[in-house]
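fyi for ur records
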Amino acid sequence: MIHDGDSGDGDGDGDNHNHDHDHDHDHDDGMSHLGKMEARVRALESLLVEKGYVESESIDQLIQIYETKIGPKNGAHVVAKSWVEPDFADWLRRDATAAIHSLGYTSRQGEHMQAVFNSDDTHHLVVCTLCSCYPWSVLGLPPTWYKSPPFRSKAVIDPRGVLSDFGLNLPETTSVEVHDSTAETRYLVIPQRPGGTDGWSIDQLAALVTRNAMIGTAIADDPQ
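which gave:
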């Protein structure tokens, strides 16, 4: 964990910065910097499209669905359940991996989860400073900006600036804690429950929870 304004060079909260695991290390700045696996995937995709086996639009649509709907819906369900059921929220605090797995949301990228809860005093922001560690089982595919070098560096150096870039301006009395996601620990931010939602069902509440709110670059949507 990296606190607001810290450089992140110290040992922190026991975070291990070992990023030796299964995912790409691309820098989102052109094919010349793609990881070998992603370059191969893109080459295969181009070949399949060229041969007429698949349509590029279909692939893009599938990626978009997984990135914005399927994955984040899982995390939104976790968040909403924690808002409604105190026992589940306590379980998330004690053992987020087990609590999340109890809902059937499992994957190799979600085996070591930690839930961090926003409050009036503290806001949590998640980043992977070296690559793109990300809990796919609850958030779907990582957004491009999450893997970009500017976000990775600025989130540590100027977290409030990053939040401002996303249109989120917190009170000065709210501290920002930055968590560096690694192979050993991946984070899920539990945003605060919006007011005016008393008596809402889990499904209704989940509709207010966005992917960005679970990364920490936003808060939950206000009820309409």
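Confidence is low (pLDDT under 50) at residues 5-34. thats all i got for now
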